[in-house]
Amino acid sequence: MLKSIQRKKNKLRAQRKARIRGKVFGTAELPRLSIFKSNRYFYAQAIDDNSGTTLASVDGQKAGLKANREDVKILAKTLGESLSQKGITTVVFDRNGYLYHGVVASFADALRDAGIKL
């Protein structure tokens, strides 16, 4: 029973992800900010889809930070500083199929506080 529930959750997330990716596209001036969260760690990267390169990224695992609201705010501040150094002030937020709630919302709010427009 648990496997069928998890399959359904994964299927629904994949559908949301495909729907979002069809609408969101990043350039060098306006990169796509893609996030990934596991049960333990949180990752984010700013991507230029034209050239297929990552402009800036943060990795919660390498930083030793968990995927909770307090640690995600630290990651957002770090990413905001690295984007500002590269002259990027606005990004397109790709929540990657995750609901805009909890750590995803905390990350977005902290990134706004760091001076990046979403």
TrEMBL record:
SUPFAM superfamilies: Translational machinery components
GO MF entry, a single one: structural constituent of ribosome
Example of a GO cellular component annotation carried by this entry: cytosolic large ribosomal subunit
Alphabetically ordered keywords of this record: Ribonucleoprotein, Ribosomal protein, RNA-binding, rRNA-binding
Annotated GO biological process: translation
Family statement: Belongs to the universal ribosomal protein uL18 family.
PANTHER family, sorted: 39S RIBOSOMAL PROTEIN L18, MITOCHONDRIAL, LARGE RIBOSOMAL SUBUNIT PROTEIN UL18M
Protein name: LSU ribosomal protein L18p (L5e)
